[in-house]
Amino acid sequence: MNDQLIIAVTAMASAAVTMALGAIGAALGESRIGAAAMDALARQPDEASSITRTLFVSLAMVESTAIFCLVIALILLFANPFTATTAG
Amino acid sequence: MSPILTTFLFEAANFLVLAAALGWFFFRPVRNAIAEYRSKIETDQRAAETKLEEARKRHDQVDQAYARLHEDIAREREKQLEAAREQAGKILDEARQVADRELKLSHHQAAQITNSQRDRLAEVAATAAAASVGRLLEELSGERLHDALVESACRQLRQWQDGLAPVSVEHSLPLSETQVEALKEAAGKAAETAEFHTVDGLGAGVRVLTAQGLVDASTAGISTFARRSLVKEMQDRANNPAVLQDVSDA
Amino acid sequence: MELHIFDDPVLMRLGPVPITETMVTSAIVTVVLIGLGAVMGSRVRSGRSDLLSTLALMTVESFDRLVEDIVGRRQTVVATIAATFFLFIAGCNLAGQLPGVHPATGSLATTSALAVLVFFSVPIAGIWSNGLWGYLKHYFRPNPLLMPLHVISELSRTLAMSVRLFGNIMSGHLVVGLLVALAGFLVPTPMMALDLLIGLLQAYIFAILSTVYIGAAMSVGEE
Q1: Which numeric CATH code is attached to B109-249?
Q2: ipTM for this prediction
Q3: What b/e readout covers B83-111, taking b as 16+ CB neighbours within 10 angstroms?
Q4: pTM of the full predicted structure?
Q5: Which chains touch C (3 or more CB pairs under 8 A)?
Q6: Which one of A58, A63, A65, A69 would you mutate to disrupt binding with C, by most C Cβ within 10 Å of its Cβ?
């Protein structure tokens, strides 16, 4: 039980850290993408459709890292292979 | 089989089926319709372009016709202008000729008027001259002029000799016995028929009326004669410009 | 409250084959999509110009143009696949907003299946377009040493696609479920609206990414 408790506490802490750092990185990256996209749109309004498409794809790419972190955090919390019982 | 694997396989197959079904029932007819629309639009566009080309051609034709019409109008106007100018020149010439004729006519009339005036002037001048001659003669007058005039009448009568009767002698101044005798002697045979009348206005001298003619040897007759000859001379000069010219040159 | 995050609840079993809730949901979505598509197709074929046929024309034309922009030429097959990805994922995501419906794309199995389909479509499209040798050559293109990196890149992007879609949809659904459980009725409505946006956006991104990958494979010979 003691081991299980340690594992559970460690999993929760690392899930929180994972989520926090992943969110920070993704937020910074997405903000830069958004700024660059605004700049490009201001410079070339004619290319709006192409820029918007690239913007969304890039946002999805960057956000996927945050999503990965979220999935990892969820795995740590609910599907941890080292805990005795898996959720669900 | 685990539920996850089953789901995985099912989803893959499901998606393939969905893609095939949508491709067959949805995308193919819609793409055909789009292609039809596009081809129809292209056909319409080509037809529209053809029509546009045709319209442009017609526009050009109309433009050309318009330009030709403009040229024609300009040429016609030039022609009309030329004709009008010619006509104007002709009319002007005619008018000038008419004016020349009128001018000549009026010159002529003026000349005639001048002639008649000149004639009248000559008449007046001659009358005045005759009057002055008569007055001169009367100034000169005296017995000697009277004698000379009677003598002259006698001479004329003597030349005629025969057929003088009836003789009528007119005089203003009284005739002396000698003069009466001389006249009777000059009349010869007709002396018996001679009558002596005293009339006014003859001045000195006598006027003898015979069957053969008139012997006018009086100052009035001389002045009349002078007037006549002066008028005749002046009229001759007027009717003969050369003479007139000579006179004016002189 | 029982959380089904990484597995699918089994509804019933047909012999040895388990029927999961995800399978049912996606099957229903598929049937609805096919029916709608068939109706639209027949409307368009009949030449009517009503709302449905205009919508169909707009959808197909916009996806054809999108693929043309990305690939560089008109590719009806690729456009069909990309549009089907979009329609299926968007349909599943929107269906997930219905009460009591677990979205099919919120299951890792579904998104993995879609991503694996993209993974296999890439070499198929590349070989179809460039020939077997023409396609395989590009693995060694800058340097033969980079060949493992190519392979890893393809594998990792497949994983990324599947996990991205799964994570977005599942997290949205999970947040809504947690809010309902903690705060109560109608509180998670803004989150559900955000989920609508995210669902359509992820479907669009999945379609675009698959098109980009397939298009890149088709034009490897042109580099």
Answers
A1: 3.30.2320
A2: 0.90
A3: eeeeeeeeeeeeeeeeeeeeeeeeeeeee
A4: 0.65
A5: A, B
A6: A63
